[in-house]
Structure formats: C-alpha cells, structure tokens
Amino acid sequence: QVLEGLSSSLQKALGKLRSKGKLTENDVQEAMREVRLALLAADVNVKVVRDFVARVRERAVGQDVQKSLTPGQQVVKIVYEELTELMGGTQSRIQMAAKPPTVIMLVGLQGAGKTTAIAKLALSFRQHQHRPLLVAADVYRPAAIDQLHVLGRQVEVPVFDMGTSHNPVDIVRNGMQEAERQGADIVLVDTAGRLHIDEGLMTELEDMKAAIQPMEVLLVVDAMTGQDAVHVAETFHERLGVTGIILSKLDGDARGGAALTVRQVTGCPIKYVGLGEKVDGPLEPFHPDRLASRILGMGDVLSLIERAQEKFDMDKAQEMEERMRSANFSLNDFQEMFRQVRNLGPLDQVLKMIPGMNKMKGIENVDLNDKRFVRMDAIISSMTEAERLDPKLMNASRRRRIANGSGTTVRDVNQLLKQFEQTQEMMKRVSGMGKKFGR
Ligand code: GDP
Question: Which intervals hold domain AAA+ ATPase (predicted)?
C-alpha cells in the first residue's frame, strides 16, 4: 500500500468524524489536530501543513458543513479536495512537440532512479505507439552507459551513445541526428547525476538545455528522502526550470512528505510516480485525485482500470469500468473482477486498489493464487444466473446446495456474499463520489 502510515493515521483521524451525526467545533478542532500530527509525521513541510489545516478547518466549520445531513462525510470530502489541490489538482501531462521529435531531458541526483525511470518511460512510449530513442549523455560513469544499454534491450528501445570522451552537448546533437535517421519521434536524454548538488553539474545541464531546447526537463527525485527531495527539487528548478517531477520509489517506505509538499513548494507538477524497482514495474502518470483517494482509503478503481486496459482488450476493460461505476454491480461482475485481477500481477498491490478491500481484515495475508480464490470462483459458478443478479434469492437451503456444488462450506458461501455486499457498497460510494467530484 502506497503511503500506508499516512493513510492509516489520516483515516483514523477522520474516522471518528465519519460516524458523527452532528459536529461540534470541538470535534473539528480535535480531528484537525490529529490531521496536523499525521501530516507532520509523514514529513510534510511545516508551512504546507499549517496552511493545509487552516484551509480545511475554515471550510469544515462553515455553515454548509454544519447544516448538511452528513457533516462528518463532508469533512472527509473537504480533506480529499484539499489534498488533491495540494498535489496539483489535475493530471499534468507530457508536452509533445508540434514538430517531432519531442526531446525530453531527465535530470536528477545519482541513485534517485533516473535510469530506471527513463527505461520505464521509453517502454511506456513504445507501448503507446511512439518510437523513442534513448541518448546516453552521462559521460562520467561508463557504467551508466552500460546500464542504459541493458535496460534499453529489456524494453526494446534503441540506445545511442558516443562513449565517454565527447562532451554531452555534442552527444545530444548527434543523438538528434540519429533520431532523425531512425525516424524516432521522442528523444529521451539520460544526463549525469552526482551524489550531491554541485555547481559543475548544474552548469553542464544548463548548457545542454540551452543547446537542445527540450520540450520537457523532468527531474527524478526519490520519494523516500522526504524533505530532502523537496530541497533538491527547489534547487534544480531554480537553475533549470524543471517542467515536471518524477517521484520515484513511492512504493518503498516513503512517508509521503515529498508527494504532498513538492508541488506546493516548487510550483512544479508531479508528472509520474515510480512504483517498482524493475523496469516493468509501474511508472504511473500522476493523478492527484487518485492518490488523495487512495490515501483516504477510497480505493483507486480508476488506476486499476487503467492497468487493466494495458493488459486486456480495451472493450472488456471499458465494459468493466462502466459496470464498476454503475449501481448494478452484480456477482457476475464480482467474479469477472477477481478473474481479471488475477491476471494483473503484482496481485497484492492490485487488490489493495479495490475499494473496501484494503480495509478487510487479513488482506495482507491473502495469497491470490491460493485456493481461497479458486473457491470464490467456484461458489459463484454454482449459482444460478438469477441468484447472481439478486443474491437475496439464496435462502439457507440454496446456500447449502451451492456449498455442496462448489465443494465448499456454507460458511464460505456466506463469507463470499458478505464480501460481495461490502464491495458493492464501496462501488456505490465511489461512483457517487465520482459524480460529486466531477470526474
Ligand atoms: P540513477 O542513479 O538515478 O540512474 O538510479 P537508478 O535508476 O540506477 O536507480 C537506483 C536504485 O533505485 C536501483 O536499485 C533501482 O532499482 C531503484 N529504483 C528506481 N526506481 C524505483 C522505484 O520506483 N521503486 C523502487 N522500489 N526502487 C526504484
């Protein structure tokens, strides 16, 4: 689970409000105190926390909230909206050049995950029918060039290099010619990194930027370094005019400080987040609203669907999306859902994106290839079509027969029905929210 600590402490702070019919100013104060502590513990910048809490508090004690039927839920909604806003509001995409190739320069400190990110980007562009070329312009570390070749082979994207004896500006210029020769429409430039910010590096990067006029200068920062990542971003942005941030290692034990702070402090949008150390691990386009909803435990149906779209044929995924969002989510859909989920890989990650699933007890221990999953499938298969559409039809004797038919117990059947009900409830809530928040 991404940003697990922050997520659970915020949910705890807000959970108390959710159930309340009426909110006193005291309730709000208390919750805001806990929200503040949760954010500080996640290493969010102090000033950012102060402003954030002040905004939420002001809105939460407002008349509209007090008069609404579900004041607690309204406060959760306000926190969701403000979190989304804090992280940039809407998705910020890569700008494409009117006349190809689109040049994208990746910069960042050594170890931040630059090379991994560049390979993941290349893979994603290739999968979206682009023809990327990687240019190796880190002339200080021969190993960096080798690494880029290795990753390039893995993602089946060509790599251009000129060894380590030319200057980076020349390499990039030649790289551009090579791109033209190959008909590449995107040039991804890997630049040198250092362990710390250093004047020589900054000057070199400035020169490269001036020479190739890239559409994008993407800075890779390591989410696990928290506020350090924010400082790094500030410095790079001042010198280079960074156009977007790639926040790597958000899957690690990142506390969230960087994700929640960097946009506000630098003004630079986060464009991607890295969620795995392997090149086929996800580098996801960053959606502030989705991360906010993940943090608040509203699940992340949309990211799941997007991943599904990559793995399955579009029609099926589209259909699934519509059904998930509609109120008629049935046992058929439930079955289809976990059948598809099983094909999605890293299953523990995927499962936790499904609304409600992350709250289910023992979810950490579920092994998805295990028999339980097969059992759930068998149980649904033993129901009649009418029962799948209307579970209420299953009385005790039908449940017994279904258990027999699927080689399971009545308890298993009941448990499945209960899980289905919970999921259905969540689906309803999420789709209701989607409408309210204008998705
Ligand atoms: P560079 O020096 O900036 O080019 O960094 P690398 O791309 O070589 O990455 C440094 C280390 O971080 C490697 O061990 C990567 O596998 C790891 N890494 C990079 N991105 C991610 C990520 O998104 N998640 C995790 N868990 N590890 C990552």
Answer: 100-247
